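Thread: quick sanity check before group meeting

JM: Hey all, I'm pulling together slides for Thursday and realized we never actually wrote out the predicted structure for the chain we discussed last week. Dropping the sequence here so it's in one place. If anyone has concerns about the input, flag it before I start.
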Amino acid sequence: MNLIIVESPTKAKTLSRFLGKEYTVDSTMGHIQDLPKSKLGIDVEKNFAPDYILTPGKEEVVERLKKEAKDAKRVYLATDPDREGEAIAYHTFDSLAGGNASQPSKGTASKFQRIVFHEITEEAVKEALGHPRVIDNKLVDAQVARRVLDRLVGYKLSPLIWKKVRRGLSAGRVQSVAVRLVVERDRDIAKFKADEYWEIFADVKAKKTKGFTVELVKIAGKKAEVKDGKTAKKVVSDLNKAKYIVLSVDKKEVKRNPYPPFTTSTMTQSASSLYSWSAKRTMSVAQKLYEKGLITYHRTDSVHLATQAVDMARHFIQTKYSEKFLPEAPRVYKVKSKSAQEAHEAIRPTKADRIPGEFKTVGKFKEDASKLYALIWKRFVACQMATSIYDQTTINVEASKYLLRASGRIMKFEGWQAVNREIKSAKTQAVDGEQKLPEVKEKDSLQLIKVDPQQKFTEPPPKYNEASLIKTLEQLEIGRPSTYAPIISTIQARQYVEKTEGKLNSTTIGVAVSDFLVKHFPDVFDYQFTALMEGDLDKIAAGSKKWAPIIGQFWKPFSSKLKGVEEKAKRVKIEVEKTGDKCPDCKKGDQVIRVGRFGKFLSCSRFPDCSWKANYVETIEMKCLGCKKGEVVVKKTKTGRRFFGCSRYPDCDWASWKNPKQEEKKE
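JM (edit): ok, ran it. Output follows.
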């Protein structure tokens, strides 16, 4: 009998389906060893040696695995194909073999072997079983270095934050940088001053054709810049008097290539944009799909595809769509980031011919699993399809000294966009959001129907949402595929950032903690420094650097700075939001909104002299859509997700995930 050890029961169940009776598959149920929660667990005097202990509650798991390993001819450690998976394999080996996992005896080393696969399919697993290897200590070291670094920062800074900001708070190395991004974006928005500008359109038509809209683009040969109403009025007056002549009609063929296959970052961004999913939700659904053998490993920053995957896609495209949808040569996508980890593939379905909607999905995740699988499948198949081709027409119209322009595209050949098609004629379909232009020719006279001036104002930078924050972290090379979702979840769980209508907003606590850390530890929470540290972790994984000296280079100045800040830094005052009402108890102070461990609450501004407090109920100034008596109030689930309910609950149980006021505006 041979034993295969994985992390999760679901993964074990999937493997058991296609492995024969000569294999027993069991799981560690997650990490089998971890740093202790009650103390630092790192010996800073002895090369930062971590004191890993058996994870509480795993005693029975280890005993069971030990018995199975003792009876097994071979033990295959088949944890996930990344640094965290390598570390779990290392700790599992260490717990079961009862010795030094770095230098095992020959007999133990031959019995315990590491196998890696990027998809849970029979072919991939049997291929891995045919090519076992030893545990890669370089990858383990990179994971240990991250864990040690994060522990040093978190355990040393959190008590300081308690003293200088507020009890119960904590700090994280990468999470605090993410909070800083949100805080700085909110400040940019707050100080933004909008500038007025005008866009001017004209509806025109030629004889025996439908009308179309042209936009002002140039005035006297220069780019049109209409910055105030007075100028706009003058332009409109001129345009109402002018003669409209077609100056030119330019037609050309425009090509559009498909997007590369998904990485963790682009997958979470797409799911956020299309389905308004959180990063945590997307990764949870992807985990289920991976464990069921439906997609490849979902924590990756690579757009590379294996040769057999490309061949599989091309065969499917030729069979399903025909030869013309297949480019002459396979499309090759290259990783732009220098930090892309190990030899991972992009996220893709394990079978191209497993079409969305034509297979059984994952239990209670059925709807979510179907949606995400369809997204991954379409992206993968499309990335190996032919280019989409459009006929683009640009009509330039002269009206005195003014040049106006209309552009439109009609799809000529749908190419890769065929994966999204519904039953419609691609040849006559105008591109969404663009007008279908009539046939006109140079020097044609056009009749003016109306001039339409539109006042606009420049807009501030957009609020971050989860997808755009992940994209920014990726661009700054901060964090890695396995850390994006935990970062976003952690900063919300700590109430440093809150999500409202899908947008991330920094809280008063988040601002206070971020400002304190950036002021007193500018190097540690600098974007470039954090990215360089990620680069060092990559070098450890590649074997070009040792982990202990890197931690040492960080620790010496950090620990020195820590002592100085503890002695000299002043306590931070957290800004509070006033409600406009007086305290009902002392009648002197103002009612203010504070943030505690369990969310927002009302308090007196004179605290601690006045101890009055009350529950904070956030309303949207709208009557309940159910009973018409209560107020619509904002509530949160146990997991922190916002929803809208009635203030008369439980007498009225009306509730909605969507803001009814926003929905009313849409109508």
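AS: nice. The longest strand covers residues 244-256. The first helix runs from residue 9 to 18.
JM: adding both to the slides.
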